[in-house]
Amino acid sequence: MDNRDEVKVGISNTIRTLRFLHNEMTQKQLAEQIGVTRQTVMAIESNKYSPTLEVAFKIAEVFNLPLDKVFTYRSGK
C-alpha cells in the first residue's frame, strides 16, 4: 500500500462549510466568538491543529450543532 491508498487518520472537521452556510462567516468572526486567534481557527480548519475539547465545544455551539456534526475522528483501524 502506498501513501495514496492510506486513509487519513485523526480529527477532521466541517468548519469551512459551516462558516459559509452561516452568512459566510469569516475566520476572524468565528475566532472572536470562541476566544482564539484567526490563525488558530485557520489551523484547526485546515486540520493542522487539533482543538482542545473546550474550543471544539465552543465551535459546535456557535453553529448550534452537536460536536460530532462538526468534528469526526478516524482511527485508521
TrEMBL record:
<dbReference type="InterPro" id="IPR001387">
    <property type="entry name" value="Cro/C1-type_HTH"/>
</dbReference>
<keyword id="KW-0238">DNA-binding</keyword>
<dbReference type="GO" id="GO:0003677">
    <property type="term" value="F:DNA binding"/>
</dbReference>
<protein>
    <submittedName>
        <fullName>XRE family transcriptional regulator</fullName>
    </submittedName>
</protein>
<dbReference type="InterPro" id="IPR010982">
    <property type="entry name" value="Lambda_DNA-bd_dom_sf"/>
</dbReference>
<dbReference type="Pfam" id="PF01381">
    <property type="entry name" value="HTH_3"/>
</dbReference>
<feature type="domain" description="HTH cro/C1-type">
    <location>
        <begin position="25"/>
        <end position="70"/>
    </location>
</feature>
